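hey so u asked for the seq, here:
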Amino acid sequence: MAENNASSSTNPPTTNQFHPFSTIVNIKLDRTNYPLWLAQILPILKSKDLMGYVDGTLVCSPKNLPGATTVNPAYSVWIQQDQMILSWINSSLTASVLATVASKRTARATWEALEQRYASTSQNRILFLRNELLQTKKVSVAQARDTPITYPTLEALLLTTERRMVDQNNSLAELAPVNAFVATRGRGGGRSRGNGRGMSSFTHASLSN
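ran it, structure tokens below
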């Protein structure tokens, strides 16, 4: 009995009773929401002791043991778990993101590719929005604080600014045809008034003669 317990403790974590990401992860990864996606995925992997498959700490066992004629059981278990995690990760991606990692064959390779491609993109987007935020009045309130602004507060301000920018752009797009029409009418009215003055001068000269 003791030998069985010792043997089972060395086996890699199994996923037999683990639900797929599709039933737990509500936000699929796109090109802009990597932090939100990661916030959903990490607790799942950590709670099931599966982080080793994506961070590289749980390496694959040799396919064949020295002197053995059959496949190493530990290798088979690792491949099974890795491919299950890979399928769960892929199911949590949008189609456009999945297309960028479709050639990856392991959970770790996919994890690294997503991190390299989208973690920096999300960080750059935050920096861009932060710079835009500096153009607004709210930055004065943030800078006037005695204590440093917290990340959730900064994120809320960034999202508010982004929504305001989108609304302003939409409003300008809607007003563009109206402004063009008014400008055209204004130029036409000016010509008409000019023509009217010319006709009045001509009529006055004719009457004087």
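DSSP finds eight helices and no strands in the chain. The helical segments are 2-9, 34-47, 52-55, 73-91, 95-101, 107-133, 138-143, 151-208.
lmk if thats what u needed
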